[in-house]
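A favour, since you know our structure tokens better than I do. Could you add the entry underneath, on a fresh line?
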Amino acid sequence: MKFNFFKQFFIAFNFLILSGCCLAQVNDTSFITGDALPDAPELSSRGDFKVGVRTLELIHKNQADVLHSYRGADPLYDRRLKIEVWYPAIIPPGKTDLVTYHSTLGLWKDSARPLIPFSFAGRALRDAAPDISSGRFPLVIVSHGYPGSRLLLTYLTENLASKGYVVVAIDHTESTYPDRAAFQSTLLNRAKDVLFVLDQVANMAKPGNTNFLAGLADANNTALIGYSMGGYGVINAAGAGYSNQLDSTFAKMTGGSNAISVRNSHNTAFKATYDARIKAIVAFAPWGMQLGVWDAEGLQGLSVPTFFVAGSLDDVSGYEDGTKAIFKGAVNANRYLLTYENARHNVAPNPPPAASLKPGVSFNEYYHYAEPSWNEYRINNINQHFVTAFLGIFLKQKDYGKYLDLPVLSNEKGWTGFKPRTATGLELLHEISK
């Protein structure tokens, strides 16, 4: 009896402590996800702009509903997409650029991982007026993993907005935590969602439009950022067509649908979808190579500058037969591959939210974000640094070459932009187009 009492007391005590941590994460704004650690590399610090954030909803009408395909026929539906937009903003007197984001742990219709709402703080002001005093800003579109959320990379989206970008992150319908559906929807819609959002933002940003983005976003100077299935989507949206093997697999999954064939490199119609507004992409742990999604012909279609990021032990997208193989095969692109030695798949998201630490919450919620060998806050800062350098070069023509012209292995010689003794466990490869 005594043992059970003390055991129960210990569990309850720890629950209170962890619950307090969750509240502190939202209410204590002295350090927020995305802030620079003492050992953060040079370009990870926030830029000169204050940041605003808004939530918008878009409707992509008459899309193939492959979740209900029957004998090769696809009914049509209106595909609703929620997007989060971060942008340079004006913070009025008496206001602070702080925001509370609301997200969800768990998976829809999964009793082992029930949906758990949680909140966390960010450095942006909700619905702030845009700062149009500096002209138009390059556009960045962000695509999350499966399942995921438009709020999965706020450390990066806020950071880029503070440096003079309009950043749009998509909630991919049927691929988020609250609405995760069968995989064929994600396979089909990732690249299509990205290109649709690009078109929509371009229209909203036209001078004279009543939308707040009018005159603010420069859609003709766009970068795409994708993580995992988002990486799969942005590589395709930027010109790398899918393989015949994916066509065949997709048809089996959907009872004969060929809706994905328009994104196939062997389809003559695919090249007509190439979008010259896309100037660069960042692909974190892109999925599909080890399962035959990409072939040599398809990867040759990727010609825009590309920055790949991967963990050397990635057991979801693969490394040697995954991200690194995509990097090697994209022979027509000026491309980089940043590798976190001994990291697995989670080289892109925010750190684990405090809600994932509560007793009784599935281990999978913590490990949806965490890395076994790396501090996620540290990964976030390094990503901020390199993405800033890469996009600065190719979207803003900044003189950031020294931050990418580095020895291959960080352990052998210090890397420019890193404090002494802090550049360890990293590799950066660079190949120019053939």
